[in-house]
Structure formats: structure tokens, C-alpha cells
Design a protein that fits this description.
Blueprint: E1 2-5, E2 12-15, E3 20-25, H1 28-34, E4 38-40, E5 44-45, E6 50-52, E7 57-63, E8 66-71, E9 77-82, E10 87-89, E11 100-106, E12 122-124, H2 126-137
Parallel strand pairs: 3-11, 11-12
Antiparallel strand pairs: 1-2, 2-6, 3-4, 5-10, 7-8, 8-9, 9-10
Bound molecules: zinc ion (ZN) (2 copies).
Residues 25, 27, 29-30, 38, 107 line the site of one zinc ion (ZN).
Pfam families: GFA
Organism: Enterococcus florum
GO molecular function, one term: carbon-sulfur lyase activity
Length: 138
């Protein structure tokens, strides 16, 4: 397992020690919540990881379909949880030397023009991403 923790260390987390497909979300909500685009692990269900320090975790319902978590003490962003399938997406910054490959950029049309990421990625606009999501649910 790969260990991670928030800035103050009250919330700790362990996820499988595998190479992750890293997705970057450029949406405005992620930019506000994380202070920058959200570089995320692939989705994990709660039986695949351990999250401790529950009393220090504040959950925030950012939309009807998702909750975001942060540490009550230090304010570190901890996760994005999709309520539909109960999948958790963790910011890669919580972990040291996480292995992964940057594969996807979503809400690409929301990305500010003054930066871009290197590497070959699948880039989806908000519309393309939501169309794909909607198709999968059918
Ligand atoms: Zn903390
Ligand atoms: Zn986002």
C-alpha cells in the first residue's frame, strides 16, 4: 500500500501501490477547491483504500452527485467522491512518489491559457466529457 496524509497529519490514507492513470480536471469547481487543476488518481471504491482520522474530515456536498472532503485542521483537500458509484478520487499531492501516467484531461475548455501540461493526453471538453459519462450510464 502507498501511504498518504494531509498537511497536519491527522488524516492518513493508504491506497494500492500500483501505477495510476492520472486524470487532470480543469473544471472551475476543482480549481477553486484544490487551488489549481485537480490531478487525481483513478477512482477507488471504499474497499480498496483506508482512510483514517474520520473525525478530522469535513465533507462538503459540492453538487447533487458529488462530495468533496477536506481536513478540518489544516484545510488540505482530501478527495472527490462520486455519490452515484461511490468512487473516490484522491489528489496525487497527498502521496509521496506516487507512480502514474498522465492520461486524461477533462473540462479542457476551462483550462486557463497561461499553462499547459506536457505529454500526450486524451483531452475532453466539458461537453465531450459529460456526453461520454451519460453514454456509460445508459
Ligand atoms: Zn490535516
Ligand atoms: Zn473538476
Amino acid at each position: 500500500m502507498k501511504q498518504g496524509h494531509c498537511l497536519c497529519g491527522e488524516v492518513t490514507l493508504s491506497i494500492p501501490d500500483v501505477s495510476y492513470d492520472i486524470t487532470v480536471c480543469h473544471c472551475h469547481m476543482c480549481q477553486r477547491f484544490f487551488g489549481s487543476p485537480f490531478l487525481s488518481t483513478s477512482g477507488l471504491t471504499s474497499d480498496q483504500f483506508q482512510l483514517s482520522g474520520q473525525t478530522s474530515i469535513q465533507r462538503y456536498a459540492s453538487s447533487e452527485w458529488a462530495e468533496r472532503g477536506f481536513c478540518k485542521t489544516c484545510g488540505s483537500s482530501l478527495f472527490y467522491c462520486s455519490l452515484n458509484d461511490k468512487e473516490y478520487y484522491f489528489p496525487i499531492g497527498l502521496f509521496e512518489q506516487l507512480e502514474g501516467i498522465l492520461t486524461n484531461e477533462i473540462f479542457y475548455n476551462c483550462k486557463p491559457e497561461f499553462y499547459s501540461l506536457e505529454g500526450q493526453t486524451v483531452k475532453l471538453t466539458e461537453e465531450e466529457f459529460l456526453t461520454q459519462l451519460f453514454k456509460e450510464e445508459k
